[in-house]
Write a structure and sequence with these properties.
There is one protein chain. By secondary structure, the chain is mainly β. It has five helices and 39 strands. Strands 28, 30, 33, 35, 36 and 37 form a six-stranded mixed beta sheet that branches. It is globular and about 105 Å long.
Length: 655
């Protein structure tokens, strides 16, 4: 342990973890250097830091509840600023808010900042709400900044205590956007390509009964189709791919048919179009299959049903084939986690359509991004396949849970802490004041942090040791032998790439990889496919996502920081005494066992008092100094009460 001056002030040797957890403590001196302290571990070499600083606990918090973002197309927006005590109750007082649009000072003829002030009393929930007119601000792309700067101060009634807060509110000039709801980045030549376009207003709501223009570009040709959105703001399309001639295809969803999508220059308001690139899938059969996607983030431990549709052609099956088998694999961080087969009875029709389902229950072995591939091998040697990737919750093998037997309790009372984990687990429990919990969210233990320690589980393809490189290529008939060059890696999707993406090695004598064409490398920089200049201009204005929340300060108040063993029944109850303070407590737990790691969701406990006295004191005083002491009585009972408030006698001061 090193202090800010790199002096070693503590040391532990021969540390033996308890089931993987080392539980150590160090008493800091009463008078010590402020700054960053470092904990170093020698083997393996790793370090962590913590801050020691002077801090005056704010009496309450002030935070902006809304908006997270404003839109230039709106005439007004609601501004709401709230005050809360750390035990969750509302602050009563006067709120002053200033909203400014600042100019860019580097311009010579820059005008003054545009500011407006608002004030009023907080209501029962401790919030002040006002409507702000957008007409007073300059919304065009000009010398003003593309955000508003809001500053708020709340003056507590009766005490004169004032707490400030600030927020930057981005201005979005996108009035609406188009989004493709099309999962595949490839199409099967000759098979209709289906998808959907959704039109959304700037609040994310679907825009119904609106025209949407679908622009299809391929082989230097352009076609436009017009659709009308349904009640949810979606328009379904079904495109004939036979004329695409196995070329690359660009789809664009537009609000208007003309090229320029911007409204008049005075507002700078624009629409955001949708773009989707398609590559032809290299096929060797007239049959194909399609995996239907599961939308949203899928929970662990819940059975899901994945639908697979197929279209079989008699030319691939042969006359004597009566059944065809489909094989499937699911890969996750544990490798191949599911494998299986489905057998389908074949009729006498030339074209057979049908479907089957694959049941899947996602567990920790699947996460974070499992993939499914389904394929069929036909008697003529052809292969058809499809794959899909799922979005699954970041869960763990050791299912753990921490909770209190009550939601609210009086300070100083006892409450039972209930722990659940795999039998034999050792669990670390942390319970801290909500302010400390929200102080440095980047340092909190989360599922994302744990999975981020193992970046390899997010990778796709083969490791370099077993990567496949091929120098074999075929020469195009239209290519002169003098221009023949080295083979280039094909980006056209094929069956091999479906398996490669999942890290599955294939040993096969079937045609699963598109032959690579040979061509001469020109001495010019290669260009990558992407949006045109116009597309870049249209897509530049993206709304910035700002998560509303409180700006918390560091509050070093810890209640529980202990290790507990879990017995053979997988649960344990622990009686704990709540501190003598009114607060909101956040508790979390992680556990280690032979079954693996587990992280419990955060739980909370609120300590409340029906009435209490709060004393407003200065941060520090000098001996002999005189100051005014203010005491506030808070009553959260439903009726009035009569009490006597007195100051206890002490030899340390005179009244």
């Amino acid at each position: 342990l090193q202090d800010p001056n790199q002096n070693q002030i503590g040391q532990w040797l021969d540390v033996r973890p308890r089931q993987g957890i080392a539980d150590l403590s160090f008493q800091l001196a009463a008078e010590l250097s402020l700054g960053t302290y470092t904990i170093n571990v020698m083997n393996p070499k790793v370090s962590s830091t913590f801050q020691v600083e002077e801090y005056e606990l704010p009496k309450f918090d002030v935070f902006f509840e809304r908006p997270a973002q404003i839109y230039a197309s709106d005439k007004t927006f609601l501004l709401r600023v709230c005050g809360r005590y750390h035990y969750g109750k509302a602050v009563q007082g006067t709120m002053h808010v200033t909203v400014c649009q600042k100019v860019r000072r580097r311009l010579q003829n820059a005008s003054k900042d545009i500011c407006r002030e608002y004030s009023g009393l907080t209501v029962s929930k401790g919030c002040f709400t006002t409507s702000v007119s957008m007409t007073v601000f300059n919304l065009a792309h000009s010398e003003e900044d593309s955000k508003l700067y809001a500053e708020a101060s709340l003056l507590e009634a009766g005490t004169g205590v004032q707490i400030n807060a600030s927020r930057q509110i981005p201005i979005s000039r996108t009035t609406a956007r188009a989004v493709f709801e099309t999962p595949n980045a490839y199409y099967i030549p000759g098979v209709p390509y289906r998808g959907k376009i959704k039109l959304q207003d700037h609040h994310g709501n679907g825009m119904k009964n609106k025209k949407v223009y679908l622009v299809i570009r391929f082989m230097r040709r352009r076609f436009i189709k017009v659709y009308i959105t349904d009640g949810s703001g979606r328009a379904a399309f079904n495109l004939d791919t036979s004329a695409w001639n196995s070329s690359s295809v660009s789809l664009e969803g537009r609000f208007k048919p003309e090229d320029l999508m911007h409204a008049p220059r005075r507002t700078g308001i624009n629409y955001t179009n949708a773009y989707h690139q398609l590559q032809p899938f290299h096929v060797t059969t007239k049959s194909f299959l399609d995996i239907q996607p599961l939308t949203g983030t899928l929970p662990c431990g819940v059975k899901q049903s994945v639908q697979v549709t197929f279209t079989l052609n008699r030319d691939d099956l042969g006359e004597d084939t009566s059944r065809i088998g489909f094989a499937y694999y699911v890969t996750g961080k544990a490798g191949i986690v599911v494998r299986g087969q489905r057998s389908v009875q074949i009729g006498k029709l030339n074209m057979l359509k049908g479907s089957f389902s694959i049941p899947l229950t996602f567990t920790a072995d699947f996460t974070p991004s499992p993939s499914l591939v389904v394929y069929a091998i036909f008697p003529n040697g052809g292969v058809t396949a499809d794959s899909i990737q799922f979005d699954v919750d970041l869960c763990f093998e050791n299912q753990v849970k921490v909770s209190f037997t009550a939601k609210e309790i009086h300070p100083g009372s006892t409450v039972q802490l209930q722990l659940q984990a795999a039998p034999g687990s050792i669990c670390a429990v942390q319970a801290v004041n909500e302010r400390k919990f929200l102080t440095r969210p980047e340092r909190e233990l989360t599922s994302q942090m744990i999975y981020g320690l193992f970046p390899d589980i997010y990778r796709h393809g083969y490791p370099t040791q077993v990567e496949e490189y091929s120098n074999h290529c075929i020469r195009s008939q239209s290519m002169s032998p003098l221009l023949q060059g080295k083979s280039q890696l094909s980006i056209q999707p094929d069956i091999f790439n479906l398996f490669w993406n999942m890290g599955l090695k294939i040993f096969s004598n079937l045609e699963i990889k598109k032959p690579t064409k040979c061509f001469h490398r020109a001495d010019r920089k290669p260009t990558m496919g992407g949006p045109s200049t116009e597309e870049q201009r249209d897509s530049m204005e993206q709304p910035q996502s700002t998560t509303p929340g409180r700006l918390q300060a560091y509050f070093p108040e810890t209640w529980i920081w202990s290790l507990f063993s879990i017995g053979s029944n997988g649960s344990r109850g622990v009686l704990v005494t709540v501190p003598d303070t009114v607060a909101e407590w956040k508790a979390r737990m992680f556990c280690l066992a032979g079954r693996g790691f587990g992280l419990a969701p955060v739980t909370s406990l609120r300590t409340v008092q029906p009435f209490f006295v709060d004393v407003t004191l200065p941060y520090s005083v000098i001996q002999g100094e005189t100051f005014t002491l203010k005491a506030t009585v808070f009553n959260y009972l439903q009726q009035c009460i009569q009490i006597h408030v007195g100051l206890a006698k002490s030899l340390d001061f005179q009244v």
